[in-house]
Structures are given as C-alpha cells and as structure tokens.
C-alpha cells in the first residue's frame, strides 16, 4: 500500500460546498484511495473534510507569495519527516519547488492552461523525479514533448448521480456552470428560444461577471421558458441534470475538460457542445450527445435528441469517467514515477 500526499490550492475546502471542480476531483480520488487501503495525507483548506489525514494550510491565498511559501514549507517539512511514496500536486507548481531536486516521486496534475515555461523548469530541476498529468489530450498539445505525461481525465461519482433512463417529451434543456461569457450562458438562451424549449440555468455569478449577468442573462429570465435557479450543490445538480433532455455546453473558450459533461452523462443526460477544448474527447458525437461547429448546429441537434440512448451516456461514464476508473489511472501513474525515482 502507498502513502500518497495530495495537495490542493488553499482557497476552497475539499470537497467544495458548491463550485469547485478541482477540489471535487481531489475529494473523490482521496476517498477511493482510502477505500482501496492506501494512506492519504491531504494538504488543503482547513475546513476540508475529505478522506485521509487533513493538514490544514496556514496560508489562504495562491496569489500571495508569503502564503505560498508557508504552504510549500509545510508540505516539504511533512514529506521530509515522514515516509511518503508519492506527492500528487493539484496546486500551483510552486508548492513543489523546495522538493523538485529531491528523489521523492512527484506527480503534477494540470487542470488549467499549461505554461510550457513552467513545465520546462519543473522537468529540468526535478531531474526526472517529477512527471506530469493532464485531464485531456487537448491540453498538452504545446508541451507533450517536455517531460513524461499521463492523460487522466476528470470523473464523477456514480453514487452521487442517479441514472434516469427516460425523461418527459417536454423536458427542459439545462445550462450548469459559472455564469460568465466564456461559458456561453447567453448562447444557451438563444438555443433554447430558437428551438422552442424551456431552459434551466444553474450556477454562480463570479466576481467580475455581474455586468454580464445583468445585461445578457437577467433580462431573459421569465421563470417560464428561462429559469435561473442560482448555485446548486451535488443534490441539486443530480436532480436538475437528471430531469433535463440535454446539457448545453456552448463554450466560447478552450475548456480543458468540463466535469459537468460527465456529471450529466452519469444521469443519462446527453450533452450538446460546441467544438471547443476537450468537448470532442468527452462527448462521443451521435452516441452520448452532439458536438457541433456553431450555434445553428446545436439548435438542429436539439431536434435529434430522441436518437440518443441515455443508457449509452451512463455506460460511457462507467467505463471511462468513474471515480474508480480514474483512481486506477492515477495509481498507474504513481507506479511509473516511483519506478523512475529508483
């Protein structure tokens, strides 16, 4: 059995109460590792309640150099005074800097845009003791030749999301995510109106997104065709996604993954996505949803939702994106980096 050290950013607890995709994945991984008999030590926000032993950070902000130094020093002291088989970092690479030259196996998972310079520095300073993981092939196009990479997608808990084999003929469309322009909530409204379907919108309005919400979203909310339900927890997501005819992902940016797509498919709900980021990797076009080049294509796809077998959506998650499957992939990555350090 392995002793795995997991490190998160300090801003949100693990698991998050509402928004927080990375923290949700860390929680699922920690719980599955513990279930399999591994020892887990988690460095995270002090309010975290995830599986394993919690080490609450002193520093509270990734943007603070002082806080980052305090948190990195905390992880380093622990790893030097305890037998640790592998350090798995989901936080900034800076958290690993003091340990990069040491012969401690290290895995760095990127869930945000990857900077080639930081990967190059990490690879050079670690002398092969640091390997990298990304959540989609799309993410690593510019850095695949630097260091050793593992592709481990994000996941959903099959216990959290109930499979719904069918929904009503007039079931609404669903948009779930941060209410900001790059996520395309305004396009979801356009799709629903032009397809003459009801739309439920769920998600938080982030700092800096209030003007977008007030001008492009709020004027269309009538609590009839367009309903805004606000931020939701896992229970709310399970209910809303399960009763939807489809999840809309009209992305206007190169999203690295999009956990909500997997959560929707776990409920049996197909995904209608624009061809951006990792969407073509996650959604099997014509089988678990439709990936289209533009809004017109997504509107047309709404009319073909009855050709999607919701059992295929759930099955794809069971095979490719469950917490158990993803944990096994990370365990394989651990064994690779451990072997490289011997």
How would you describe what is shown here?
It is a single chain. With 342 residues, this protein is α/β, with parallel strands linked by helices. Helices cover 35% and strands 17% of the residues. It is built from 11 helices and 13 strands.
Detail the topology: elements first, then pairings.
Elements: E1 3-7, H1 21-35, E2 39-44, E3 53-56, H2 65-81, E4 86-89, E5 106-110, H3 116-126, E6 130-134, E7 149-151, E8 173-176, H4 185-195, E9 199-202, H5 210-217, E10 226-230, H6 234-242, E11 246-249, H7 259-266, E12 271-274, H8 279-282, E13 289-292, H9 295-302, H10 310-321, H11 323-340
Parallel strand pairs: 1-2, 1-4, 2-3, 4-5, 5-6, 6-7, 8-9, 8-11, 9-10, 11-12, 12-13
Condensed summary:
This protein has 342 residues and is an alpha/beta fold. The protein has eleven helices and 13 strands. The strands form two sheets. It has a seven-stranded parallel β-sheet, sandwiched between helices. The chain has a six-stranded parallel β-sheet with strand order 10-9-8-11-12-13, sandwiched between helices.
Portion in beta strands? 15-25%
Report the sheet with the most strands, covering strand number, pairing sense and barrel closure. 7 strands, parallel
How large is the radius of gyration? 21 Å
Structural class determined from secondary elements: alpha/beta
Helix share bin: 25-40%
Strand order of the largest sheet: 3-2-1-4-5-6-7
Oligomer: single chain
Low-confidence stretches: none
Nearest-integer average pLDDT: 95
